[in-house]
Amino acid sequence: MIRYAFIGDIHGQYAKLQALLTVLKTESSDWFYVFVGDLIDNKKGITESQLETLETVKALVDSKQALCLMGNHEFNAIGWGMCHQKNGKPLRPHTENNRKQHQAFLDAVTEDSALHQQWINWFKGLPLYADFGAIRAVHACWDEAIIQSIQPYLKTNNAIAETYWEMAFEKNSPLYNMTETLLKGPELALPEGVSFNDKTGLTRRNIRIRWWLQQAETYRELAQVPPDAESLIPDIPINNGYSPLTLDTPVVIGHYTLHGEPQRLSDQVICTDYNAAKGDHPLVVYCCTVEDGYLSSRGFISSTGNIV
User: Fold this and answer.
1) Are 47 and 107 in contact (CB under 8 A)?
2) What are 245-288's pLDDT values in tens digits?
């Protein structure tokens, strides 16, 4: 029997990680931890705990007690730290907004230092997804067609092969589009003239969609946006209809900054990101066991010790 603990987006909240690991250790001493990505980045004040978080997770991975998946923030960190071989420009543009999102990590490692490069190299080895047979995990979206199509670009551990990193940041390349879906989730363009501001203040004309819904008819119903932005999404029929993804195995994701009491998003999709990045929001883990191919759910546990 294997006990899995799927831990949500930490974003440098080391104290919450330590609290959650303490809670889990009182439950059992033989968890296999699966970190679903986004270990790093936060507001500028969350700086020192960036390294403590990374070192804790890496130690668990090195001791074979854990697996850490690529999150979009680790992916972005790689693009920030790597340059095109031909033109010397960063793979991820060093815009003011991109720097603002990434500054806490850059301050922690000292940008362009040997330590910075050390963590970029570690991020590059993180797998995009994990398939444990009875349960799977990916940062944002499990799309079976993409999982199959992306195989030629991956190493045996499902991490992007070194030769393809520039392609991963070339907009409209096959690899770019596939990683966008797996790490950030599918999006849908809003009707002409409609937009909303995201949590960083950027104007958005696309919406992240609730790809786990088996049925949706309007943009508002389908949109995965903060609660205070829902009213900004038009409650009108989706132009070209909605085709849900079909899953035959449960999958655990992070990424979506949910609110309220942790619960399954659907019969087959579980999310562990309940905004631990901010304030007193707890870090959440989804626990289950697998024995002889049979999956048994333990449910959600938070860093405050609450069991859902």
Assistant:
1) yes
2) 999 999 999 999 998 889 999 999 999 999 999 988 999 999 99
* 200-248 per-position pLDDT tens digit: 677 888 889 999 998 888 999 999 987 877 888 888 888 777 788 999 9
What 3-state class would DSSP assign to 207? strand
- Give 156's contacts (C-beta < 8 A, 6+ positions apart): none
Can you spell out the DSSP letters for 84-146? -TTT--BSS---HHHHHHHHHHHHHH-TTSHHHHHHHHHHHT--SEEE-SS-EEESS---HHH
Phi first, then psi, for residue 215 (nearest 5°) are: -155, 135
Other beta carbons within 10 Å of 307? 11
**Longest CA pairwise span in the chain (Å):** 54
Write the DSSP assignment of 140-179 as a string of letters. S---HHHHHHTGGGB-TTSPBPGGGHHHHTSTTSHHHHHH
Rg over CA atoms, the chain: 19
* pTM (two decimals): 0.94
Which helix H or strand E contains 184, and what residues bound it?
helix 174-184
* 78: helix, strand or coil: helix
User: Would strands 269-271 and 251-253 be described as parallel, antiparallel, or unpaired?
Assistant: parallel
**Counting beta carbons within 10 angstroms of the beta carbon of residue 103, is it exposed (0 to 12), middle (13 to 18) or buried (19 or more)?**
middle
Give me the long-range contacts of 235-239 (CB less than 8 A, separation at least 24): 236/191, 238/188, 239/191
3-state secondary structure of 251: strand
> What are the CA-CA distances from residue 105 to residues 45, 80, 146, 189, 229 (Å)?
10, 11, 30, 31, 28
